[in-house]
């Protein structure tokens, strides 16, 4: 974003060790290319590090148009589109009320999550810890692919060790919870979940997917949905510490609408426009995937007189888009989405937080609903305040974000 200001251009080109890298820093450029020209801008670069990790089943990394990538997206869309995702409201409600770990686990597998030391949460966390530096250029090998021939013992080849660890984590991610769910089904336990619903549908006849696809998509949900959603919630807590006025307004709205002693439910969403705007503002104020997931343009293209070389990595800079699109962007202001206390139709939903075009996040409706019910429930019962130290002084949060795909 700084470079786009410095060079007065919302399109920046970088040559990274021979890889052509194009960063789009305005909603206009991102929409013109990644959405309107989606037929050529929806591929993904090759990530040698993920190949070493054997993460060849992860939709976010698959080439556009490949059979497995089309089937996975279709399965995601079938179960997580705006209407179908309502089926998971019971799990979302329960997870919000217990505020236990990752909401995505009961949704994906129908498995309970323990409030602490849950083996599945632990597996998801271990995995994202190892993989988070990736896709945005955190692994040097992605720019210098010949590094993959360097043996593990060679100084600086720590990535080889990481790859081995992630290979094992990837296998566990796919198999352990999936087998547990299958075991539950075999034992007659009836718990709706993405996996159980797909396996039930498979039993009822021929489908465009098979059991392996269900297992892979479930594992993709598990990794793509865990860290992202919980990081937005962490950002929400930080935003509330920094903006007590916004918190008070949201709580006043809940008290006036729902009354005390009750928890908000999905049916109340329309009656709580300020809370709804607060959730949008959390997504906008500090997008948790600030640099998106890189796209790749297959063929040479021209845009506003610029030549964009074939096979360039093209990044929609969500951070910049979500800052430039709204006035006074650094201020946390849910009101920006409202007009006379109602949703303002002329202010755009911060959907850049979920990416762009044909690769836009297929979990966005599910994620938005999980965030809404959790944030509304927390605001209804808790007051989020800065910690007071032993010396009776307020402890200021650090307001720092970690680097990585998920920030
Ligand atoms: C607040 C939470 C979430 C955020 C901010 C988020 C953000 C993103 C972003 C920025 C992308 C890249 C889009 C692009 O390439 O332009 C993406 C892709 C993806 N997300 Fe999410 N996501 C979230 C939750 C979820 C959940 C809950 C799921 C699954 C249930 C999910 C599944 C995926 C998948 C499978 C992809 C890859 C799509 C493809 O490459 O075709 N995400 N997400």
Automatic annotation (TrEMBL):
Coiled coil: none annotated. Heme binds at residue 361. Gene3D superfamilies: Cytochrome P450. Pathway: Secondary metabolite biosynthesis. InterPro entries: Cyt_P450 (IPR001128), Cyt_P450_CS (IPR017972), Cyt_P450_E_grp-I (IPR002401), Cyt_P450_sf (IPR036396), Cytochrome_P450_fung (IPR050364). It holds the Pfam family p450. One of its GO terms (molecular function) is oxidoreductase activity, acting on paired donors, with incorporation or reduction of molecular oxygen. It is found in: Membrane. It is a single-pass membrane protein. The keyword Iron-sulfur does not apply. GO terms for cellular component: membrane. The keyword Membrane applies. Its cofactor is heme. Keywords: Glycoprotein, Heme, Iron, Membrane, Metal-binding, Monooxygenase, Oxidoreductase, Transmembrane, Transmembrane helix. Its main location: membrane. Belongs to the cytochrome P450 family. This is Cytochrome P450. It comes from Roridomyces roridus.
